[in-house]
Amino acid sequence: MTRIGVTGHVMLADGTAELVYARLTEELRPYAGPELHGITCLADGADQLFARAVLACGGSYEAVIPALDYRQRAVREHNLRDFDELLRGATSVSYMPFPCSGREAYLAASLEMLRRCERLFAIWDGHPSADVGDTADVVRAAHEHQLPVTVLWPSGAQRQ
Prior knowledge:
Blueprint lengths: L1 E7 L7 H13 L7 E5 L5 H11 L3 E6 L4 H5 L5 H10 L3 E3 L7 H14 L2 E5 L11 H10 L4 E4 L8
Helix pairs in contact: 1-2, 5-6
């Protein structure tokens, strides 16, 4: 089984989700089929696009949720339906041992995702992290754990 994790930006500009999704499905195509397994924290943006691309390529995914209150505190109203749908579609869901969402919980979930995967896809514009646990921090941790990292930032992609 090929186990691929994801990290990436949450706030994507109009039109960027389509570019990222197309690139993800292109990168996942060599792994397509039931042996493809994704690991995601299911955040809006890159994580959810990844989960959908894994499914489109015939794979499955598991979710690592940062905290017990993540849905109530961190998932914005416009994204609740998609989050709930993707959470139900996961082969397994685990919660980090944090009662409240926050930077520490987000970083812990990302580190757990890295522990479970063999490779990381980073939907990343290459800029440094603005806060603890942002995409650049997760990429750096993957390198420290000697995980292969594939950075995907399609031409024309922008953050909001």
